[in-house]
Amino acid sequence: MAEKKGKKTEEREEREYIIPLRANWTKVPRYKRANKAVKTIKEFLARHMKVRDRDLNKIKLEGYINEFVWLKGIKKPPVKIKVKVFKDGEIVRAKLSELPEKLKFKKEREQKMEEKAHKSIEKKKEEVKKNEEEMSEKKTPERTEEDEKKEKEKTISGEESMKKLEKEASIREKHMSKSKVKEPKHQKRMALKK
Question: What is the arrangement of strands in the sheet containing 12-20, beginning at the earlier edge strand?
Answer without folding.
Answer: 4-9, 12-20, 80-88, 91-96, 59-61
